Amino acid sequence: MKTERKWDTLASDTRQRMEAAARYIGPGKQVKKEDTVALLKSVIRSFDRVNIEGNNQKQADFLADCLLQVDPAEINNLHMVQSCVPLASHLDMFEKGIAKRLDFAFGGPQAARVAKFIREGKIELGAIHTYLELFGRYFLDLTPRVSLICAYEADREGNLYTGFNTEDTPVIVEATKFRQGIVIAQVNKIVDKLPRVDIPAGWVDAVIESPKPFFIEPLFTRDPGLVTDNHILLAMMALKGIYGEYKVKRLNHGIGFLTSAIELILPTYGEELGLKGECCTHMVLNPHPTMIPAIEAGWVDTIHCFGGELGMEEYVRARSDVFFTGPDGSLRSNRAFAQTAGHYALDMFIGGTLQIDKFGNSSTATANRVAGFGGAPNMGCDSKGRRHVTDSWLKCGQEVPNMHDLIGDMPRGKRLVVQGVETFGEARAPSFVDKLDAWKLAENAKLDLPPVMIYGDDVTHIITEDGIAYLNRAPNMDVRMAAIRAVAGYTEIGLAEDPAETKRLREAKIFQTPEDLGIDRSRANRDLLAARSMRDLVDISGGLYNPPTRFRNW
């Protein structure tokens, strides 16, 4: 028997909300900034699922501040679904009782406060996701009812220009609008004509010119002046022992000084090794300023970006053969597409971490910080859905001695997942531990699982100042743990090393020291850097790179 039901309840509900908000919305969908709180009160209901655009770079900060001004007696128990919660206002909403439940990917500067709020019951945590995982759930079971986004400019009809920092905006808008949700945008400026249309007006319900430009963080800028000799030693090992060994062309560099050091010695040590044209030709990463020397030296064919980087706008515009730019000449970043490329198309991910346990599991979480993962796990894993072949992917898979136990005689490749750390990190905290702090965090925050960033079975190589552990060549867990002990230095894990066992690992090339690789440690110094200061980067860019003020000392 056919059941009678209405099939347009979402659209009907949206019409009612927009009718309530109509008095605040003028021509071109424009709303006066002083009416923004009233607008939000008209379109948001208690228990709604709400997205405030904010990743680790640009932030819809004006709209977040306005949502914080609603009366929690009228609007409460919101379920926030958003990439990151780096602003104090994101957490203040939970403090006031406006929001209650949180699904996110990265905590950033609010990581300790997230953990505290979970312990105190102010946040009901859904899950800590990766970016791509959360984006996927926007189209499944976490679709926002209302999304508060940000853009550089809007025109008089409500079209948006997200430009250099497009980042998460397309995926948020598409998930929200095509499920009958409401999209509200803050923009830095309303203009007559946009450089290009990134989000069409038909997908936007209201536009507010905010009192100041949205907040944006230059998260991927590293001053070459702070690169140490130890970073350079690790970078030399990475280039000779991994990049050169596997001829890795398609890769991502995580954030940190190790990867900055690698980028800065590509035109020097990398060329000496004959790797130009053999490695780093196709990359997925933000426009790192420390990549400028390698780009200028002709190392890179293509870079696709998750987001932009302050100061790199004109440099990217002038290098459109390398970066993905629009017809207007500005960068078109897109976090969803970059993460997809990172998950399926890369041959290698290399990045740092705070802790690695004796099995090779790693995490950036500590006992009282819910930092989240961002995009690292999507790139720092072996994508089981991959079907295309590259030489480096195939070679890494061929070196896995127990592949036969898993899939019989079927050949298969494997993503290189490299963790690079100094054996002791900030404040002399050991990088290698018996048990990750993530276990304690899971207990404190009442999580079902410890928040592991990269699981041990995905990690293929660990680099420290002591050498490289080639974990993909280890036939079983005992050998794998011995290789980890060999690179763990004077940590408690490293002090358990058996010299005779380590000698056997060196002979089997499961562990290699710098000397085994033919690397002269005395050459690991700043003379090897293609740029030694921010000013050098500006000069090498031909004056196109314009560093943020805090990175200038001239």
TrEMBL record:
GO molecular function terms listed in the Swiss-Prot or TrEMBL record: transferase activity
InterPro entries with a match to the protein in the record: MadA, NagB/RpiA_transferase-like
Gene3D superfamilies assigned to the protein according to its UniProt record, in alphabetical order: Glutaconate Coenzyme A-transferase
Coiled-coil segments on the chain, per record: none
Domain of life: Bacteria
Pfam families the record matches: Mal_decarbox_Al (PF16957)
PANTHER family: ACETATE COA-TRANSFERASE YDIF, MALONATE DECARBOXYLASE ALPHA SUBUNIT
Listed name of the protein: Alpha subunit of malonate decarboxylase
Organism: Rhodopseudomonas palustris (strain HaA2)
Lineage summary: Bacteria, Pseudomonadati, Pseudomonadota, Alphaproteobacteria, Hyphomicrobiales
